[in-house]
From TrEMBL:
Domain of life: Bacteria
Pfam families linked: HxlR (PF01638)
Lineage, highest ranks first: Bacteria, Bacillati, Actinomycetota, Actinomycetes, Micromonosporales
UniProt keyword annotation of Magnesium present: no
Keywords in alphabetical order: DNA-binding, Transcription, Transcription regulation
InterPro entries assigned: HTH_HxlR, WH-like_DNA-bd_sf, WH_DNA-bd_sf
Domain HTH hxlR-type, first and last residues per copy: 28-110
Protein name: HTH hxlR-type domain-containing protein
GO molecular function: DNA binding
Gene3D superfamilies, sorted: Winged helix-like DNA-binding domain superfamily/Winged helix DNA-binding domain
Length: 122
């Protein structure tokens, strides 16, 4: 019988790892979180969105990412003619909240458990 604290920890689950990697593949495509974060602030037209993201994406990359986010139900683009704006959906807001919470927790964990590199950036 083991008496150390590690015996109380649940073993890593292959299912949990697959879920994490699946979510990262599904939602972690280039520009996805930049787009979601900008649209969380306000609905935007394509060119405004392109200017808001740094570094500036290529138009084709941004268009492809927007199309993918629309297919995933995270971004909407009501067809209202000229000046139509992209907007975040309720599902997109929910994903943004999950990602923000994860990033905050990861930052706290890193500050506690990883040696300081002497820089303020990731």
């Amino acid at each position: 019988m083991r008496t150390d604290d590690s015996s109380t920890l649940a073993p890593p689950s292959a299912v949990d790892a697959r879920l994490f990697h699946d979510a990262a593949r599904r939602y972690g495509h280039r520009w996805a979180f930049d787009i979601i974060e900008e649209l969380r602030r306000r609905p935007m037209r394509f060119n405004d969105l392109m200017r808001a993201i740094t570094p500036t994406p290529h138009a084709k990359s941004l268009r492809d990412s927007l199309r993918r986010l629309q297919e995933q139900g995270l971004v909407a683009h009501p067809e209202a003619g000229e000046g139509a704006r992209y907007e975040i959906t309720a599902a997109g807001v929910g994903l943004a909240q999950v990602v923000t919470e994860f990033a905050t927790n990861l930052q706290h964990w890193s500050a506690t458990h990883l040696p300081s590199s002497g820089t303020d950036g990731p």
